[in-house]
Amino acid sequence: MATMLRALSPGQLHGRLRSLPAALPASLCVRTEKRFPLIRVLGSPGNPNGTDPLSCRRALFCSGAGGDAEQPVEASSAIVPTNPRPEDHMSVIALPLPYRPLFPGFYMPIYVKDSKLLQALVENRKRSAPYAGAFLLKDESGTDGSESEKSIYDLKGKELFKRLHEVGTLAQITSIQGEQVVLIGHRRLRITEMVGEDPLTVKVDHLKDLPYDKDDDIIKATSFEVISTLRDVLKTSSLWRDHVQTYTQHIGDFNYSRLADFGAAISGANKLLCQQVLEELDVYKRLKLTLELVKKEMEISKLQESIAKAIEEKISGEQRRFLLNEQLKAIKKELGMETDDKTALSAKFRQRLEPNKEKCPPHVLQVIEEELTKLQLLEASSSEFNVTRNYLDWLTALPWGNYSDENFDVHHAQKILDEDHYGLSDVKERILEFIAVGKLRGTSQGKIICLSGPPGVGKTSIGRSIARALNRKFYRFSVGGLADVAEIKGHRRTYIGAMPGKMVQCLKNVGTANPLVLIDEIDKLGRGHAGDPASALLELLDPEQNANFLDHYLDVPIDLSKVLFVCTANVIEMIPNPLLDRMEVIALAGYITDEKMHIARDYLEKTTREACGIRPEQVDVTDAAFLSLIENYCREAGVRNLQKHIEKIYRKIALKLVRRGLPDELSSDSNVQHDDAKDAPEKSIQASSEVVRDGKIEMDAPVAISDAQSGEAELKEPEVGATDVNVPQVDEAFDKLVIDESNLPDFVGKPVFHAER
């Protein structure tokens, strides 16, 4: 038999051994199962009973790969020892491992970027010496994992030697494909010295586990606890089950040392903790370290399971609630109790359009019907659904053909205009002409009027009065500094957040198609990269074109011919000529002194006095004070500065009145002093009430005296001294404040315009 084995080459012998029948005797498989208790305990993935013939053949002909096992790597070398055994390698090439150490009996793929190192490994494999030393790389302080990975390939010679841990693993090179090298660990090594620098070659000592008693109860109990914990982890972690399926197929003889390595190798612990397990030669201590690692893995698995369970419950609860809501909607819809969102929206839009449907233009009705049909076909979650809904909202909210009843009474309009403004005869005359033409025609047409004048002459306020006189809704917007055409013409619906222009917003807000629109500060229009708003106003303010005004958002013509446009400007020269040509300009000159006197007395003073809470009988501002205020303080064309000075005067008057005290408090104090001055301690007298009128004290009816003293009691006059003391205090409290030209500087300061200046 020995002669036949010697005659066969190693490859032929290995091939014949691998071609053994698949059906091995059951007794041999049972003996194999007894040799691999870890496979039996944890369960083989391919065969739960642990009697897979392929596993039996692996157990017979694969290396024990570590510990005290003396079996060779290949069966051919075991029978015909033509190649060196692993323990014969006392000098090996050092392979740095950046992430985790390699344990005996486990596979690990690594990438070798160094061409010289890779070539040396290939040559060793060709010489039938496919072994190298795998050593974990130490981390440098202040560097993270990515930096250490980059620096591995820059380390050479002594620098790399200093960065390696002393204890590593003798690894067999099973395959080399490009830069990927697959290693399988065999036994522990300890570096003794450096032999070569490029590639790094080191002398090593082969380490063996310290002797231990296999029947020791403590070691048995610890190993059983490790196995029990591993089984618990396998139940909860699918990742660990994958590891076990991979490693149990290649594990050799089971012993306590191999169990410790197995637990540390498949754990996700820190690489330094795994290195401690690798360096530990005492089997009991190694089992304890492994037990700590698998216990931590067990806690992590439990935490992961609880988090996954909580998230799953939350998701399932939300899904259940969603399904119940959908079922409830379906049931209500079947019973006619509720309609879906699209049906409800369509019903709302149709109901909103119904009052003005007969007045609505046909082309607008056609667009609305098309959009309603489109809305029913869209999903509620799509972006196009929201665009269509907003578009229908604007289309149905506009007052199509809805006009307010105008007042063509010229006398009524004249009264309202005179109530609100003094002077401005040109403007009032033009408005009355407009009303007269409308009364004769029976209808009114939209006009474009431009009021030009200095600040403070009442250009903006006259617009509101005109709207009230005509019984029209009023809407104002300022175009000062406006540089975006979209503010006038609207945005395209393709943009997110698109909105119609100011005119469409105006019609929706006022609810009528014939409002009075005041375009303020038209001479201060801006111009930017978004276009020229002045050119966009040409269509809006042209009576021949605004009957079919086209907004970019609505994209349907709108009739603005009934709208009365009133524009205001300070300098008409700043208005572009094409725009100025479309407007009727009415110039508002500044007010003269007499007009300012009437405005101050009839409008400004009354409004300011009421705003400050002062009664007319408490203060008197003379005409001389107003004249001095106009000539020496407020010489501008408008009355805005005059209003500010009048407000300043009345604020100071209010402060003086509050500092003097309230009239009711002073009256009650004088009554108390008067009653104390009476000398009638023995008489039962009802107190007479004192009434202060025009600064004088008046007494009521005579006091009533008690019956016991009615015959001899006499009514005593109040003491003169007490009356003289109290009367000046009350007179002083109720003296009317008079503001004239002499004390005017006390309220508004020194004159601004003066002969000395």
Describe the structure.
With 757 residues, the protein is of the alpha/beta class. The chain folds into six domains: 1-61, no CATH class; 84-206, Archaeosine Trna-guanine Transglycosylase, Chain: A, domain 4 (Roll); 209-338, Up-down Bundle (Methane Monooxygenase Hydroxylase, Chain G, domain 1), CATH 1.20.58.1480; 341-397; 410-587, Rossmann fold; 592-706 and 715-757, Helicase, Ruva Protein, domain 3. 49% of the residues lie in helices and 13% in strands. It contains 30 helices and 17 strands. It has a five-stranded mixed beta barrel with strand order 1-3-4-5-6. It has a five-stranded parallel β-sheet with strand order 8-9-12-7-13, sandwiched between helices. 28% of the residues are buried. It comes from Anthurium amnicola. One of its GO terms (biological process) is protein quality control for misfolded or incompletely synthesized proteins. InterPro entries: AAA+_ATPase, ATPase_AAA_core, Lon_bac/euk-typ, Lon_lid, Lon_Prtase, Lon_prtase_N, Lon_prtase_N_sf, P-loop_NTPase.
